[in-house]
Amino acid sequence: MESRILALLQPIADELGVDVLKVSVGGSGRSQVLRVVIDKRHGVDSDVLARISRGLALQLDAEDLIAGHYRLEVTSPGLDWQLETEADFTRYEGEWVKVFLIEGGSIEGRNLGPCDVAGNEGFKLGIEAVKARSCEERLFAMNEIAKVVRAINWKDVSRRSK
User: Fold this and answer.
1) Of 47, 75, 103, which one is at a domain's C-terminal end?
2) Is the whole model's pTM more than 0.90, yes or no?
3) Residue 67 φ/ψ, nearest 5 degrees
4) Mean pLDDT: which of 31-40, 130-139, 149-158 is highest?
5) Does the residue 80 lie in any domain?
């Protein structure tokens, strides 16, 4: 079912320049929920979410894929969305992320994008020095990471508010 919905959704997403991150159908009977998660570099606004929702709803009604009533939710990913693929690291390049290591602990820094780490997929992280005038680059292979999520750089927020 999700793959058929994705086939209907993909042309709409391509036209609006967004990536479809997830399509899922849950619930049963009269309380089915179709959830679609979309995003693009620098985020999506409510107009894009509404256009995707309207376009997909029209396609679903025409194809009559979901029997009975359903609720359609179109959203962007939250900060806790895990970055896993090369496309994720490219989409959020330049954004602040938090890296949770398999060995324990975590590190925050600026995602500098996907790279090849000794023949394995990975990414570069820019870690700011204490005074934020210099930045150390660190390479991470995906096999040493438990998860990576976007985060808020509170130093940047406080700098911008001054």
Assistant:
1) 75
2) no
3) -70, 135
4) 31-40
5) no
